[in-house]
Design a protein that fits this description.
By secondary structure, the chain is of the alpha+beta class. The protein is built from seven helices and eleven strands. The protein has two domains: 4-123, N-terminal domain of MutM-like DNA repair proteins; 138-261, Helicase, Ruva Protein, domain 3 (Orthogonal Bundle). The two termini are 27 Å apart. It binds a DNA duplex (16 and 16 nucleotides) through loops.
DNA sequence: CTCCTATCCTGCGAGC
DNA sequence: TGCTCGCAGGATAGGA
């Protein structure tokens, strides 16, 4: 679930809660996530203040003077300032003020890693432009889509094309842009590329304003649910009626992921 | 290169 | 109530 808006929501929540807090020590409970956590993370970050909370694509970065903790939430990852311990808590950051900042990920598709000061993480090296930044433009799409015959929705999921879009927002953006998700990416007309850029940005921005989307277990860092899921137009609505034209929404698998669209509103 | 499939893992809802 | 089955937000390796 955690796509860009959810990660940004968590970032903002953590910023309000723990910016400036001192990490007294880190305890790793289980290191075998999508790839093994570095076991020396515990020794690298000791008595370090959290100087910034950053996001790049779907990655959340906790900066300290001794280095950066890089995290990816995968499908089910969460950061929370913990009340009680829960199953699947994989790492606990014990803060000097007595609070505990916990990384939890039941499905273990996430990542927790250490990045030395000044180093560039390989995880971030090949990411495409931030969709809400200045580099995500119709011209960028034109260049990058030219050689791609794949379905446009599949291409939007490619993090080297544009970073941070996942299965939910790719579908929502296609609907808003009036483009069928299975259209070959290199066949979009200029006006459609322009519209797609506009709508990717808009849907992500609106979702951030709504505190992200809460599906199953996503929570903001303070424990609140997001509420953008109430405004989904197509995601998980196959067989239901289109909110725009009233017609029946269709569903199919594209790029191995479930996909819903409106045959009338999307061409 | 591009593109497709299988895979990692746990939890949950649907259906029986 | 309890079981099995299929599917889920992501990303990558391997092969065609």
């Amino acid at each position: 679930m955690p796509e860009l808006p959810e990660v940004e929501t968590v970032r903002r929540g953590l910023e309000a809660l723990v910016l400036g807090a001192v990490i007294r020590r880190i305890a790793l409970h289980r290191a075998d996530l999508r790839r093994p956590m570095p076991l020396d993370l515990e020794s690298r970050i000791v008595d370090q203040p959290i100087t910034a909370l950053r996001r790049r694509a779907k990655y959340l970065l906790l900066d300290t003077p001794a280095g950066t903790i890089l995290s990816h939430l995968g499908m089910t990852g969460t950061w929370r300032v913990a009340e009680a311990e829960r199953s699947h808590d994989h790492a606990t950051l014990h803060l000097a003020d007595g609070r505990r900042l916990v990384y939890r990920d039941p499905r273990r598709f996430g990542i927790l890693d250490f990045v030395a000061p000044g180093a560039v993480s390989p995880d971030l090296a090949d990411l495409g432009p931030e969709p809400l930044g200045n580099d995500f433009t119709p011209e960028h799409l034109r260049q990058v889509l030219a050689a791609r015959r794949q379905a446009i929705k599949a291409v939007l999921l490619d993090q080297t094309v544009v970073s941070g879009v996942g299965n939910i927002y790719a579908q929502e953006a296609c609907f808003r842009a009036g483009i069928r998700p299975q259209r070959p990416a290199n066949r979009l007309r200029p006006a459609e590329r322009e519209r797609l850029v506009t709508e990717v940005r808009a849907v992500l921005a609106e979702a951030i304003t709504a505190g992200g989307s809460t599906i199953s277990d996503f929570r903001q860092a303070g424990g609140d649910a997001g509420y953008f899921q109430h405004t989904f137009t197509v995601y998980d609505r196959a067989g239901q009626s289109c909110r725009t034209c009233g017609g029946e929404l269709k569903g199919a698998t594209i790029a191995g992921r479930s996909t819903v669209w409106c045959p009338t509103c999307q061409r």
